[in-house]
Design goal:
The chain has 272 residues and is of the alpha+beta class. It has helices at 3-18, 30-36, 72-88, 100-103, 110-123, 126-136, 140-143, 147-157, 161-170, 176-189, 191-197, 216-226, 232-241, 256-271; strands spanning 40-44, 53-58, 61-67, 95-98. The radius of gyration is 24 Å and the shape is elongated. The structure holds zinc ion (ZN). Zinc ion is lined by residues 81, 85, 96, 98, 102, 112, 115.
């Protein structure tokens, strides 16, 4: 990626971040920010081996999906990557589907690398990483960073251990050898334990399995049901995602029994 393109992406990430609620260092709730920006966010536990996320433009809607079977910190990164596609690429290409290869930076595709760079700049801007090291780490110059420091960064920036290491390396705060040492420390101590030991947010390290679908999708489904486009079981399944039952929305349903009776009358009438 050329330097001027990188700068363009930093400007766009910074512009998005300025609109977000930020704690001392990290964006507090990127899922909320996504909805505030007018994107339709769907979160669903699609399975561990399924795609991690996608984004697409449909009519006037920008839809972003994230798989809630990944650890929350990784789901947040996927979301940041998808926002990157929306802001950088969705004008030229109508959709992007992401998996472990595109999200972990193993893809050589320019647009995938750009979305990952956007995500890194959005979640961990260079200035804020520098400020964290300056204010929160004693004797950084002499001692460098420990795995517990990385766990604190995870909690402050709402990112995964891997992402924190990658970002620190690309910003020149650690070298590949230090990265390897920290990675080994992580394997020995386990991220969950590290987070607990620094009083961090242990939920970052487990999948949420959340089901979160924009409320207006209920309207589409009810409309389809009322027009006989989907069976009752499908309606029930969708309602279950919202923890609703048929009874809860009964006033909005056209009773199919009545429709069938009318049809019977009509067909009967024709037979006679
Ligand atoms: Zn992508």
């Amino acid at each position: 990626m050329q330097d001027n393109r990188k700068r363009e992406i930093r400007i766009k990430a910074d512009c998005f971040r300025k609109k977000c609620n930020v704690s001392r260092y990290g964006i507090i709730d990127l899922f909320k920010e996504c909805e505030q920006s007018g994107y339709k966010l769907l979160r669903y536990p699609l399975g561990e081996n399924a795609d991690l996320g996608f984004t697409l433009k449909k009519d006037n809607d920008t839809i972003i999906f994230t798989n809630t079977c990944s650890r929350v910190s990784r789901e947040i990164f996927t979301l940041a990557h998808e926002i990157g596609h929306v802001i950088l690429h969705l004008e030229e290409e109508p959709s992007f589907i992401d998996n472990h290869i595109t999200i972990t930076g193993k893809s050589t595709d320019d647009k995938e690398q750009e979305a990952n760079y956007f995500a890194a700049c959005l979640l961990m801007p260079a200035d804020d990483v520098g400020r964290f090291i300056d204010l929160e780490i004693g004797n950084f110059e002499r001692n460098g960073l420990s795995a517990m420091d990385i766990a604190r960064m995870m909690s402050e920036f709402n990112v995964s251990f891997d992402m924190a290491l990658n970002r620190l390396e690309s910003l020149g705060k650690i070298d590949p050898n230090q990265k390897l040492i920290l990675d080994n420390e992580r394997i020995e101590m386990k991220v969950g334990n590290l987070l607990r030991s620094v009083g961090g947010n242990a939920r970052l390290n487990v999948p949420s399995n959340v089901i979160d679908i924009p409320y207006e999708y209920i309207d589409y489904v009810i409309y389809n049901y009322n027009h006989n486009a989907i069976p009752r079981e499908t309606l029930e399944k969708v309602l279950a995602c919202y923890r609703l039952s048929l009874e809860d929305i009964s006033d909005r349903l056209i009773e199919h029994d009545e429709v069938e009776e009318d049809l019977d009358d009509l067909i009967g009438g024709l037979d006679e």
